């Protein structure tokens, strides 16, 4: 049993709660990034800023009382500016187990690193990794909780692994008849629904669901789709309770207050990620091993083709062994690319990968994964074997996009059934 609150603890709780319920009147803190002013610069600001599900404490605090809580979180899981676990514990919520996805509970592990189980030193609560051998909570772990909370910031791309973690934990909840409470957050790329639909034989850890590259859903909406489309084993259903984002629709500009992972460390990188991540299946670096990942593109053999140059280095906690480590890479600088162009087109930017393939002098090595240290083949990232073949054959963007139908159109129609926000 936890000790009775001291006067100091009670004061802290009141301050935390006040910060949460009044957050809609405060300016959303931005990722530290001089280029972030370029994002949404032509957009009209909404009358009220979005208020995340987590920040609406009064909507769910009473619901948590008297329950043993499991919580799936990372560094983006905050109330105001305070980690949600710290805030809820201070408010008297009985959190008995913390679960962490890729990059870990505190978000410090590098891309693809396995994360070990531990005990959170601040709260003394067991912290279980769900990125490694264990993909979902065990039945024994689920037996020790009454309710699972999911509160993680997503960025709207199929290969961003948090939607996979969502599905695994929904499966564990469905198997044990436990409810999941989702504290929803905006999708910064919520306006974007585009790309080929994942083919069944290309399912992997970077693509589990038959969706396009950019799915255009919040976590809450995606959870409803998993249930509604019968994507859990045996078409099981997970009982859901969703605290919706206030003042939000899919075209609402949203600057993330906390970087969602080590290599998405600026708002510019978050917005470019759905368009650039397919380069992970090529010999071209996306800036891993620099402090500007997913905003630059380049390779050593592109010297003389492009003037911009950068040199990847080993950076602990970001990229210890980046592609082209300690080599000068020549390519494209997208740090000041006008993101409003993407919002207006509502399409994936294909010309960068098409142009760099055309410029690359050793085309047989462009998609050669034996030369790459990156996350997956181009086929798994694109979700189809056709994309690589089309690039090599010199297909036009129009021809490539036409091949995504009718699957993309069918997905867009299906998606409408699960929208919480216009």
UniProtKB/TrEMBL annotation:
Keywords: Signal. One of its GO terms (molecular function) is peptidoglycan beta-N-acetylmuramidase activity. Residues 69-267 form the Peptidoglycan beta-N-acetylmuramidase NamZ N-terminal domain. Pfam families: NamZ_C, NamZ_N. It comes from the Bacteria. Coiled coil: none annotated. The keyword Signal applies. Residues 1-23 form the signal peptide. Residues 271-421 form the Peptidoglycan beta-N-acetylmuramidase NamZ C-terminal domain. This is Uncharacterized conserved protein YbbC, DUF1343 family. It comes from Dyadobacter psychrophilus.
